[in-house]
Design a protein that fits this description.
279 residues; single chain
Length: 279
């Protein structure tokens, strides 16, 4: 196999020792290097500042930096997606949206260590809020009668200092006889997941496997069995909504969906020419 393209993301959420949090996502890959940054109020998660930098891009076409005034005051939480789509425009819009969306996801994950600021007296009360609000949203919250650890028990041994959350993702594309192999690895404060997908020259999936090394409960590991549903599908051009339809929902895993979506984007950036795909 020959490595032909790679993307790496690193997201962190840090305390400023004031009333603010900083969520930052760095993307560095074969043809691009960029940063997205959100500063939010620690209690309300209201966005105080949103900015981006593109350090390196093909032909320097998107290089530059800027702010996103349209996001000021928006809550960096589950409903932020529509605001991101409207607020970020122009040539680097899709890239900037992706970076800032990753920051929002990181801030949501960091919330578990900010339960007091967010109005919950104990970790248990915060855990109960999630069990009520996100019942049947993923395999973990759809099988609360089967899990061995409640969320507060799972995070009990994690003791953040100034850094509340970290997530690293790597997606690599290899050319091999008959097509390509795409690999994805996600490692964050709560999860560790890997996926390997083989595609033929038509872009059709000939095999897809993976592993969970860490997750809130062993019930999450069952999500790997869903990957076989991609067999025979044409993956290049498969948008996140379609990926979620295949392996998401009440018995799926949002983190696995996001990783596969990043793998698809990395395939698109690799420049590998599939027969008839996009024709």
């Amino acid at each position: 196999m020959e490595l032909i393209h790679q993307n790496n993301w690193f997201c962190s959420v840090k305390d400023t020792h004031a009333a603010d949090l900083v969520g930052e996502t760095v993307l560095i890959g074969t043809d691009i290097e960029a940063v997205g940054r959100l500063i939010v109020n620690k209690k309300t998660f209201a966005i105080i500042d949103a900015s981006w930098e593109i350090i390196r891009s093909p032909g320097c076409a998107m290089n530059g930096s800027g702010t996103v005034p349209g996001l000021i005051g928006v809550t960096a939480y589950f409903n932020a997606g529509s605001f991101l789509r409207r607020a970020v425009e122009g040539k680097p819009g899709e890239l900037v949206r992706g970076l800032l969306a990753e920051c929002v996801r990181g801030i949501i994950q960091a919330e578990t260590f900010l339960y007091k600021e967010r109005g919950y007296p104990t970790p248990e009360a915060y855990g109960e809020y999630w069990e009520r609000s996100y019942l049947d949203s993923c395999r973990y919250y759809s099988n609360l009668n089967r899990i061995s650890l409640r969320w507060p028990e799972y995070i009990a041994k994690i003791r953040p200092g100034d850094n509340y959350f970290n997530r690293s993702k790597t997606c690599s594309i290899y050319k091999q006889p008959g097509g390509v192999r795409a690999t994805g690895i996600l490692s964050d404060t709560y999860h560790e997941i890997s996926v390997t997908m083989d595609l033929d020259r038509e872009g059709q999936v000939t095999g897809c496997t993976g592993s969970f090394l860490r997750a809130p409960d062993v019930v999450c590991f069952e999500n790997i069995s869903l990957l076989k549903r991609f067999s025979g599908a044409v993956f290049p051009g498969c948008h996140k909504r379609e990926i979620a339809r295949i392996i998401g929902g009440a018995q799926g895993c949002e983190h696995l969906v996001n990783l596969l979506s990043d793998m698809e984007k990395t395939i698109a950036r690799s420049g590998f020419r599939f027969n008839n795909v996009g024709a």
